[in-house]
Design brief:
The longest helix is centred in the middle third of the chain and has 14 residues. The chain contains 14 helices and 11 strands. Bound molecules: S-adenosylmethionine. S-adenosylmethionine (SAM) binds next to helix 3 and helix 7.
Length: about 300
């Protein structure tokens, strides 16, 4: 099935020439159609207040947020905590860049440098804010910026053109069939020997918190929360990396459970579950239970 999908997709390619550049953002020609989708409308709505980042737009010159970018990045953990310092690459593609939290962190705290940064996200408000953050904090100074507002599936980039493909907390929001197509595209654009980092990107199918969500979803299959889509095991993630061709481009990689554990969801149908945060935070699973209780998985090249 992986090979069939690869053959189908290698025949369909798009380029940035098929997009329209408006106020620093590349939009697909069928943007109206994308705008009419529920998924896009949801992320445009969330994007207006995501992570409190809208504060940067209203901030007075004297506001601390103008001086301190960490008010916008927090301290991204997981794979980012062992990202090396002073790395320099030609090109970076970020899937689901949001307002640029991860590139801002990597540029400022890890001194990551690049010549070209491609940031793709479905949410227009978040991408407008990414441009604002770039203006305020000048992350990746001197790099060419290509900011693309589209749903991540076909990538408007050349074969073997990207050194580092990264994504943070995005794939769990994208339906399974689309993820598989996207992975074939990532494999196509990644340079041989290039690096991928998919941090906190997959929900863990054996985590009890997700299983409770799945149970509730089955009670009302018509109205489902798109934030909780399909979950995966480590083996399923490895198969996706292999089938898509990503593993062939970057053969040494790790799939590891996140260090965030959960037995209870924070909310069920929007209603907070009492003490869920407290109970989840108190979990200290033994090594043999970590794969069961981990909230999700990250996958990344070993040659970061
Ligand atoms: C949880 S946020 C993470 C944002 C950013 N990576 C960060 O760590 O701050 C998920 C992001 O995925 C984007 N997203 C969701 N579905 C998408 C899709 N189909 N195509 C592209 N981006 C998508 C959202 O707009 C949002 O920016």
């Amino acid at each position: 099935m992986g090979n069939n999908l690869m053959t189908q997709l290698t025949n369909v390619k798009i380029s940035l020439n098929d997009f329209q550049l408006r106020d620093g953002i590349y939009f697909p020609k069928d943007y109206e159609q994308l705008n009419s989708t529920e998924h896009k409308q949801k992320w445009d709505r969330i994007g207006k207040t995501y992570y409190g980042s809208q504060k940067i737009e209203q901030a007075a010159e004297t506001s601390p947020i103008k001086q301190d970018y960490t008010l916008l990045t927090g301290t991204p953990g997981g794979t980012w905590s062992h990202f090396p310092v002073n790395k320099s690459v030609d090109s970076i593609l970020e899937i689901g860049s949001g307002y640029g939290r991860i590139p801002l962190h990597l540029s400022k705290n890890k001194n990551l440098r690049c010549q070209k940064y491609y940031g793709l996200d479905i949410s227009e408000p978040l991408l407008q804010r990414l441009l604002k953050c770039k203006q305020e904090y000048d992350f990746f100074p001197g790099a060419e910026f290509y900011i693309i507002c589209d749903s991540a599936e076909l990538l408007p980039l050349e074969d073997d053109s990207i050194d580092l493909v990264m994504s943070n907390c995005v794939f769990m929001h994208i339906p399974d069939a689309q993820i598989r197509k996207l992975f074939v595209e990532i494999a196509r654009v990644l340079k041989p020997g290039g690096v991928f980092i998919f941090n906190h990107s997959f929900h863990n199918k054996s985590c009890p918190s997700h299983q409770i969500h799945n149970f509730v979803r089955r009670l009302n299959p018509v109205k489902q929360n798109a934030v909780y889509l399909k979950q995966y095991s480590a083996d399923e993630i490895k198969v996706m990396l292999t089938d898509s061709g990503i593993a062939a481009k970057s053969p040494q990689y790790t799939v590891e459970p996140t260090q965030e554990y959960a037995i209870l969801p924070q909310k069920i149908k929007g209603i907070p579950v009492p003490f869920a945060t407290l109970i989840n935070r108190s979990l200290k699973p033994s090594a043999s239970m970590r794969e069961t209780l981990a909230y999700g998985y990250s996958a990344y090249s070993n040659n970061i």
